[in-house]
Write a structure and sequence with these properties.
The protein is mainly alpha-helical. It is built from 12 helices and 6 strands. One of its GO terms (biological process) is carbohydrate metabolic process.
């Protein structure tokens, strides 16, 4: 984009180079997190809940280079996400939306449609959500903030009930998570009805608001209220924006709000930058130009901080925290952090439209 700051151009080129090196290192496996000192990746065979982020990152590279070889690599990893269609988890939104929405790989649209139908089949109309599921162990009937992103647009595309399910899935999570301060990311059903707070992830988790912001932005765009229907609660969106996108909020959040001396989480900041750019686009289309400028400014500030203070010499986003509670990869490069930084930069530079993915 003409006039883009030099820091963004440099960061974009560095991230693309990091993808090239990662492809050579991991081969047919999916990268998960990398050691901050050596840059060596811990990998998985099927991608876990982050496989769609790796496929999405590969598509961003393919779109930037227009290289048929890069496109073929991206298409291959997208094809391999098929395994997750039948897995019982709301994280299918993260896997199958972000892994298929870019690039137009052969079969990607069909893959996404099949995944969306399976997710709609798992929708519980009584509870008003797709449960977190049992694919990763633990209780199945959970509502978790990380079960919102990607699943909202995935559900909304299904004819005959998908749009309503997407709206209710989002609003149920907003209502539950924002019923406490700080927002509680996970809730479990009670045997006799209702919900009770679930201890993991703990309240104050860095990605709670980030995931909800991203889901809310997509919900406002994809499932705006029709006549006689309630919309995404404006008060909930305002609270989320105030928590993490206001002028006083730190650009990079702590991994756990209750541990002021603990690690930060750059991956949460990258997600928030993408959400801010989406919300800015919505505000602009609604004629709310001041709000749009403020959100765009905030996104640019986050991306600049990540690009100038947390990017490794090899182009990886450092200082991401996978799981502070378990002490797992607490100051590492995380594949979803790299993906959302790259996506945010692409949106900021005008290479990708805010709601292309």
């Amino acid at each position: 984009m003409a006039g883009t700051a030099n820091w963004a151009d440099r960061a974009w080129e560095a991230v693309l180079e990091r993808v090239r090196v990662t492809v050579a290192e991991v081969g047919e496996r999916f990268p998960l997190y990398a050691d901050p000192g050596t840059g060596r990746w811990t990998t998985t065979a099927r991608g876990s809940w982050t496989g769609g982020c790796w496929a999405g990152l590969l598509w961003l590279r393919a779109l930037a280079t227009s290289d048929p070889c890069d496109r073929a690599v991206a298409a291959d990893f997208t094809r391999r996400l098929e395994y997750w269609i039948g897995q019982d988890t709301a994280a299918r939104g993260l896997v199958l939306w972000y892994g298929t929405a870019l690039g137009g790989a052969p079969g990607a649209e069909e893959l996404r449609a099949r995944a969306a139908r399976m997710c709609l089949a798992a929708y519980d109309p009584e509870r008003g959500l797709v449960p977190w599921g049992g694919a990763f162990g633990g209780p199945r009937m959970l509502a978790r903030a990380d079960g919102v992103p990607g699943l909202v647009p995935l559900l909304a595309a299904v004819p005959g009930g998908g749009r309503v399910a997407a709206y209710r899935h989002l609003t149920t999570h907003l209502e539950l998570c924002l019923s406490e301060e700080p927002p509680r990311p996970a809730w479990q059903t009670r045997p006799g009805g209702g919900w009770t707070g679930y201890p993991h992830p703990a309240p104050g988790w860095s990605r709670t608001v980030a995931w909800l912001l991203l889901g809310a932005a997509d919900g406002l765009h994809i499932a705006p209220p029709r006549e006689g229907e309630p919309g995404v609660p404006p008060a909930a969106v305002r609270r989320l924006v105030a928590l993490r996108l206001g002028r006083e909020a730190p650009l990079v959040p702590l991994a756990c709000r209750g541990r002021p001396s603990g690690p930060v989480d750059t991956s949460a900041a990258a997600i928030e930058a993408v959400a801010a750019l989406k919300l800015a686009a919505l505000a602009r289309s609604a004629g709310r130009h001041r709000a749009s400028r403020e959100l765009s400014r905030r996104a640019g500030e986050i991306l600049r901080r990540l690009s100038t203070s947390h990017l490794s010499t090899t182009g990886g986003l450092l200082d991401g925290c996978y799981d502070a509670e378990r002490g797992l990869a607490t100051q590492h490069e995380l594949i979803w952090g790299d993906f959302f930084l790259a996506l945010g930069l692409a949106m900021f530079m005008g290479a990708v439209e805010p709601f292309a993915v």
